[in-house]
């Protein structure tokens, strides 16, 4: 129980439950495996599935604003299944070059991980019509994926046919992570070298206290 976990550590606060799920899958064709690294410059970045910008209980809300407010993101299993099946089909058909799920930290963090893995930068455009850019960048809505592709029209058409929302959000290229906040303060950017340095220094810093 949470009470016993707290007593066992000698602390006064309960340890948050941390459920873990392990899964094993089989690839019919090893040559069609997919990873998250950007593969080339000039490819379109597409966000799949819904994007409501849910920031309740998000890392952004906790780390930036020091709050743990709101409900967790809602779950739509039907939408998640459609998105998952679409991604599998796109991979099998060779239509996408990189795929990553959007989870902790939202789309901004997912893009950063993809850029660092591939050593290629990216520009994400946040259009003025979006009411809350922070929610778009850091919302942790469920069941979303980011894919890159050389032929965006084909991927968008296949997504529409599958009943999955698809939105082009940027393009790969350069040596930095850029967020073009159109008419909202210009371009915010972080060089990949600095991003990688901060990323790789985090664990040693935690260990060192």
Give a structural overview.
By secondary structure, this protein is of the alpha+beta class. 37% of the residues lie in helices and 19% in strands. It is built from seven helices and seven strands; from the N terminus they run αβααβαβαβαβββα. It has a seven-stranded mixed sheet with strand order 2-4-1-5-3-6-7, with helices on both faces. Helix 3 runs antiparallel to helix 6. It is globular, with a radius of gyration of 19 Å. It starts with a helix and ends with a helix. Mean pLDDT is 85; it is low at 1-10.
Q: What is the tally of helical segments?
A: 7
Helix content: 25-40%
Task: Compute the number of strand runs.
Answer: 7
What is the ordering of alpha helices and beta strands?
HEHHEHEHEHEEEH
Features of the shown structure:
209 residues; alpha+beta
Q: Which SSEs are present, and which pair or pack?
A:
Blueprint (H helix, E strand, L loop, with lengths): L1 H8 L34 E5 L10 H7 L11 H16 L5 E5 L3 H13 L3 E5 L6 H6 L5 E6 L2 H11 L3 E7 L3 E6 L4 E6 H17 L1
Parallel strand pairs: 3-6
Antiparallel strand pairs: 1-4, 1-5, 2-4, 3-5, 6-7
Helix pairs in contact: 3-6
């Amino acid at each position: 129980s949470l009470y016993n976990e707290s007593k066992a550590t000698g602390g006064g606060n309960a340890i948050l439950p941390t459920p873990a799920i392990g899964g094993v899958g089989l690839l019919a064709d090893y040559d069609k495996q997919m990873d998250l690294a950007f593969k080339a410059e000039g490819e379109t970045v597409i966000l799949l599935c819904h994007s409501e910008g849910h920031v309740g209980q998000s890392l952004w809300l906790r780390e930036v604003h020091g709050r743990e407010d709101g409900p967790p993101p809602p779950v739509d299993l039907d939408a998640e299944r459609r998105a998952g099946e679409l991604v599998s089909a796109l991979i099998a058909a060779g239509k996408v070059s990189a795929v990553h799920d959007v989870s902790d930290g939202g789309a901004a963090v997912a893009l950063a991980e993809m850029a660092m893995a591939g050593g290629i930068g990216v520009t994400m455009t946040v259009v003025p019509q979006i009411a809350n850019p922070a929610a778009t960048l850091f919302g942790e809505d469920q069941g979303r994926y980011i894919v890159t592709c050389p032929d965006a029209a084909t991927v968008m058409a296949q997504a529409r046919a599958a009943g999955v929302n698809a939105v082009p959000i940027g393009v790969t290229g350069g040596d930095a992570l850029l967020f073009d906040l159109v008419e909202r303060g210009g371009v915010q950017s972080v060089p990949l070298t600095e991003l990688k340095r901060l990323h790789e220094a985090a664990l040693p810093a935690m260990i060192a206290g």
